[in-house]
Design a protein that fits this description.
There is one protein chain. The protein has helices spanning 2-11, 23-28, 30-35, 43-48, 53-79, 86-112. It is mostly helical and 129 residues long. Helix 5 packs antiparallel against helix 6 (86-112). The radius of gyration is 16 Å and the shape is globular. The model has no long low-confidence stretch (mean pLDDT 88).
């Protein structure tokens, strides 16, 4: 189990900008930041916590992750229908979904701990200011 935690911590070793956020903002908007990673629930903090920089940070990451998952699902839905080799894309799709689940877990973990850490892979993309 320690090996898994070490790998998770290594994966979560990304840019940390927590010190740029107000501590009161973080404490008041942790729940909104967590909701940002739960697919369509990202809409709640988009409108309910629009003035929170901490929530917006996590909304951006959750939104990028959700859009990436949707785009990937559509592409995989097409590719798995290719005769004879569609099963390869099905396996690949399962692996990518596992990666997305891990990113989702990292985002929720960081938000609940009051951290503003970029997610690996998708954290550097900015949709919202």
């Amino acid at each position: 189990m320690a090996d898994f935690n070490d790998k998770l911590n290594e994966l979560n070793n990304t840019k940390d900008t927590t010190d740029q956020f107000d501590k009161n903002d973080i404490e008041q908007n942790k729940v909104m930041a967590i909701l940002a990673y739960l697919s369509w629930l990202v809409l709640i903090p988009i409108f309910a916590a629009k003035d929170s920089k901490f929530a917006r940070f996590h909304v951006n990451q959750g939104l990028v992750l959700a859009i990436a998952e949707i785009v990937f699902a559509v592409i995989m839905g097409i590719l798995v229908k290719i005769p004879f080799i569609g099963w390869i894309f099905g396996i690949l799709g399962g692996l990518v979904e596992l990666v997305c689940l891990i990113l989702l877990f990292l985002g929720i973990m960081n938000a609940s701990n009051g951290r503003a850490k970029e997610l690996p892979i998708v954290g550097s993309f900015k949709l919202l200011k």
